[in-house]
Amino acid sequence: IYRGLGGYKQYAERSEGAISASKYSGLLGPTRGMSNVRSTMRIEYWAACSGTDGGICKDYKETGYCGFGDSCKFLHDRSDYKSGHVIEKEWEEKQKKIEEKKRKQWEKRAIKKAEAGAGEEESSEAGSSDGSDDENELPEACMNCRNQWGECKSIPVQTVCGHYFCEDCAMSHYARTPKCYTCDAPTHGIFNGCE
Known about the structure:
With about 200 residues, this protein is mainly alpha-helical. The chain has helices spanning about 15-25, 60-65, 85-125, 130-135, 165-175, and strands at about 155-160, 165, 190-195. InterPro entries: CWC24-like (IPR039971), Znf_CCCH (IPR000571), Znf_CCCH_sf (IPR036855), Znf_RING (IPR001841), Znf_RING/FYVE/PHD (IPR013083), Znf_RING_CS (IPR017907).
């Protein structure tokens, strides 16, 4: 049972002068290592990253416990390693899923815009032939600061959802939130330049 520093018995009596001298000289307490000798220890686990598990402790990997404890000469590691080509293949599959998801979202938006455009054309008069040009036409001013494009210090940019802003407004708003200022759709940091 550990009883603290007071639990240790002093067998050799020391005088007050010896105690104060050892405090002053640094001999009291743990001793410092020599400055001209540096001891280092390097442990190399044989075949720790290969599939043969030559340097990994089997008991620890399977159960999480090893009877040898810290004195075990094998690596205590329970993680499973994947080779480089497996990681790259998984990453490519993940990217393909993301691209497919974005493509489907774009198709849905295009269908909705086409349906909305068809409904407007039926209700509009026959004299207005500029309906398709208005969709891709640049608005007169920035939707955020309401300045004309000639007055803005930066170029106009278009978000993924199709709204137009001056670049300064788009970047300052994106610093606060990654959503569009007008419709709160995620911009994904994509701002295409418009001329």
